[in-house]
Design a protein that fits this description.
Length: 138
């Protein structure tokens, strides 16, 4: 269903693939940015990008579950972090790796940005995922 491709002529990526290929006819879900808000709309982990990343992943799992998918079926993601420091981006990426999101490995981009949509928000993840047919395995 999903073919992960890493080009042998490019620098080998540490925990992701260069591309994911899906045959036509597969159902895809294009997910809105997952943000670090709880069910009541309150910011989780104020000032803590690692805690916010954990909440973002938990919310992303809920978004995926709502469409009948899961982290193992994510084809690509963009991880936005409000920081210009490589160490902060790396700390957030460690949360992504630990979550199983990068287990595909899928195609991903990690970005340091100036700001995000909610006051105090430090992390956001967008994703595209396959919605498997019922009874199929990742």
């Amino acid at each position: 269903m999903i073919r992960r491709v890493t080009s042998p002529t490019l620098f080998p990526p540490p925990t992701y693939s260069h591309a994911s290929v899906v045959e036509a006819g597969t159902k895809l879900a294009f997910l809105a940015g997952s943000v670090p808000l709880d069910a009541d709309g309150k910011l989780v982990g104020e000032g803590d990008p690692v805690r916010q990343a954990e909440q973002v992943i938990a919310n992303l799992e809920e978004q995926l579950r709502a469409v009948g998918s899961d982290l193992a079926h994510v084809l690509s993601s963009d991880v936005y972090v409000v920081s210009g420091e490589t160490a902060v981006l790396s700390a957030v990426w460690e949360v992504v790796e630990a979550s199983g999101l990068s287990a595909g490995p899928h195609s991903s981009t990690l970005l340091g940005v100036a700001c995000l949509g909610y006051t105090g928000q430090l992390v956001e993840i967008t994703a595209t995922a396959v919605v498997p047919e019922e009874g199929t395995q990742p």
